[in-house]
Design brief:
Layout lengths: L2 H5 L2 E4 L7 H14 L3 E4 L4 H8 L5 E5 L8 H13 L4 E5 L2 H5 L3 H15 L3 E5 L7 H14 L3 E3 L11 H10 L5 E5 L5 H10 L3 E4 L2 H10 L2
Helix pairs in contact: 4-6, 6-7, 7-8
Length: 220
């Protein structure tokens, strides 16, 4: 896979609490230059990006982020607002407390509701694997599949751990055929990027890939 093909699988990400418009504008310019899959940004910047860049860029934002324990009604309102402002893709965080309490049907219902609101727009479901047992991870694979979401995503990048080879392999074993995998959190080298894509991930969430490819291209 060429560097260009790899970058086409990257959600170029800036989700820091203190991200400024200058930071977001730099992210968007880099995404267009390197042709990443999308920019993944805070909800507050979706409308401004769409106004500034029109259809030249694909916008992803987050819902219930990063802790996931917002009530479903609040997550639904976030989805509706993001879509109204021109968002293309939604990365939602499941209610991890519900997962730990074994309320898998409740989690599935929430995912199904949000996917219904998204319609043809992509919904990625962040399950935050660092907090889950293997049994819980398998349950989330089934919930994401049954609810009709488009992707299962490993991590927010704000938890105690990020994507691992073992979690991706587990996902591949238990998700349905229509569900894709997004690895995020701790993808910090080109070797990491290559590994996760080789394992079968369709998207990678990272803030580092563009910078790494630029430095490689410039020989520094």
């Amino acid at each position: 896979m060429t560097r260009e093909e790899m970058l086409g699988k990257v959600d170029h990400t800036q989700l820091k609490a203190f991200a400024t418009w200058d930071d977001i504008r730099t992210l968007c310019e880099e995404a267009m230059e390197f042709k990443t899959a999308s920019v993944c940004v805070p909800p507050a910047y979706v409308g401004r990006i769409r106004s500034a860049y029109g259809d030249r860029i694909r916008i992803c934002t987050v819902v219930g982020f990063p802790l996931g324990y917002s009530v479903t009604e609040a997550k639904a309102a976030e989805v509706k607002k993001a879509l109204e402002e021109g968002c293309d893709e939604i990365d939602m965080v499941v209610n991890i407390s519900d997962v730990k309490n074994g309320l898998y049907d409740k989690v599935e219902q929430e995912i199904r509701l949000l996917k219904g609101l998204c319609g043809d727009h992509i919904l990625k479901v962040i399950v935050e694997t660092c907090y889950l047992t293997e049994e819980e991870k398998i349950a989330m694979c089934r919930a994401v599949t049954n609810a009709g979401a488009d992707y299962i995503k490993t991590s927010t990048g704000f938890g105690t751990g990020g994507a691992t080879k073992e979690d991706v392999e587990l996902f591949k074993k238990y998700i349905g055929p229509k569900v894709k995998i997004k690895a995020a959190g701790g993808v910090s080298t080109l070797e990491d990027l290559e590994m996760f894509l080789r394992l079968g991930c369709d998207r990678i969430g990272t803030s580092r890939a563009v910078g790494l490819c630029r430095r490689e291209r410039e020989g520094s």
